[in-house]
Design goal:
The structure is a single chain. It contains eight helices and ten strands. By secondary structure, the protein is an alpha/beta fold. The strands form two sheets. Strands 1, 2, 3, 6, 7, 8, 9 and 10 form an eight-stranded mixed sheet that branches. Strands 4-5 form a two-stranded antiparallel ribbon. It starts with a helix and ends with a helix.
C-alpha cells in the first residue's frame, strides 16, 4: 500500500495521472451541476459546500484512476496482441516461458557458486529437473549441436562449469509437459563465475528470444521475468527501465512480424517495490 501511495502521490507520472483524471471528472460533474442549478435555482445558496464537495470528488476520482493495479495490461490493434504486467511466480504461469541463461549454458546449482539456485534458472532446474543437471545438460547439448561455438575457455582460466561459449542471444527451446521454455543466453559468464550483461547484449538477446518464440510458439502466449535485474548486473537500468525495455523490444519485433498474441511480464512479489507500475502503465499506452 505504501509503495502504491508513493508512486501515485510522489512521482511526476502519478501526479500527472491524478491531474488529468481530476480535470476530466471536474468537467463532467460541473456540467451536471449546471443542469441541476438550472432546475433547482435555490442550490446556489449552498455554492461553497457544493464546490468543496465537487473538488473533493474530482480529486478522489483522480487518485482512484491513477492508483496502480497489481495486474495491468494494454491491447494493441496493429498487429493484434496484448502486453500484460503482473506480480507472481513466473514458473506458475500457464504459458510458455523465457528463461535467462549465460553464454556458456552452465547449469551447476548444487552449491550456488556457478548458478544461484534462487535465480529463475535455478528454480526452473529444481522444479522440472529435480536438480538432475546431467539430464538437462544432455538436452541442452542436443539443442546446441548445430550452433557454432563462439569460443572455448581452458580449464585453467575457468575452473568451474562449462568451457564452450555461444553467441550472446543464442536461444534454444526446452520442452516439459507441453510447455516450451526458451533458454536465451543473455549473460556473459566471466571466468571468475560472475555474470555480466550490457544494455546492447540484453537488447540483442531479447530480439533473438522473440525470433525463437515467433518460429516455435505458434502465437501462443509467452511469459518473461524482468531479465537482467539480478545477477546479470545491467547496472545502468533499474527494474522499471528493464521492464520498459522488454516491452519496447517486444512491440518493435511484433511490428515487423507478430511474435505472440500475449506477452506477460512477471514481477516477483519481492521486487514489487522496485517497479513503478504507474510509470510502466503509462509507457505501455504510449507505445
Amino acid at each position: 500500500m505504501r509503495q502504491e501511495a508513493r508512486e501515485v502521490l510522489l512521482t511526476r507520472q502519478g501526479i500527472g495521472g491524478i491531474a488529468s483524471a481530476s480535470l476530466a471528472s471536474f468537467g463532467l460533474l460541473s456540467a451536471a451541476f449546471q443542469v441541476a442549478l438550472a432546475v433547482w435555482p435555490d442550490m446556489a445558496r449552498h455554492d461553497v459546500a457544493i464546490l468543496t464537495s465537487l473538488a473533493g470528488s474530482c480529486l478522489m476520482a483522480g487518485i482512484i484512476h491513477a492508483w496502480p493495479k497489481i495486474d495491468t495490461s494494454h491491447h494493441y490493434r496493429y498487429p493484434d496482441f496484448t502486453i500484460q504486467i503482473k506480480c507472481g511466480d513466473l514458473l506458475n504461469e500457464q504459458e510458455n516461458v523465457i528463461i535467462g541463461f549465460t553464454d556458456t549454458f552452465d547449469t551447476d546449482i548444487h552449491d550456488g557458486v556457478v548458478i544461484n539456485p534462487s535465480s529463475i534458472q535455478g528454480q526452473f532446474e529444481r522444479k522440472y529437473y529435480s536438480q538432475d543437471t546431467s539430464r538437462l545438460d544432455l538436452e541442452i547439448q542436443e539443442k546446441l549441436q548445430d550452433i557454432p561455438i563462439a569460443s572455448r575457455e581452458t580449464a585453467i582460466a575457468k575452473r568451474r562449469g562449462k568451457l564452450d561459449r555461444y553467441p550472446i542471444g543464442t536461444t534454444i527451446v526446452l520442452t516439459n509437459n507441453d510447455t516450451r521454455f526458451y533458454a536465451v543466453a543473455y549473460g556473459f559468464m566471466r571466468n571468475d563465475l560472475r555474470v555480466s550483461c550490457s544494455v546492447d547484449a540484453l537488447w540483442q538477446s531479447l530480439t533473438s528470444a522473440w525470433d525463437a518464440v515467433r518460429t516455435n510458439g505458434g502465437l501462443e502466449p509467452v511469459a518473461i521475468p524482468i531479465i537482467g535485474s539480478e545477477l546479470a548486473r545491467v547496472g545502468s537500468l533499474d527494474r522499471t527501465s528493464l521492464l520498459k525495455m522488454i516491452a519496447l523490444s517486444f512491440v518493435a519485433s511484433s511490428r515487423q512480424e507478430i511474435v505472440s498474441r500475449r506477452l506477460t511480464i512477471v514481477i516477483h512479489p519481492k521486487d514489487r517495490q522496485s517497479v513503478n507500475l504507474v510509470d510502466a502503465e503509462k509507457f505501455l499506452k504510449s507505445l
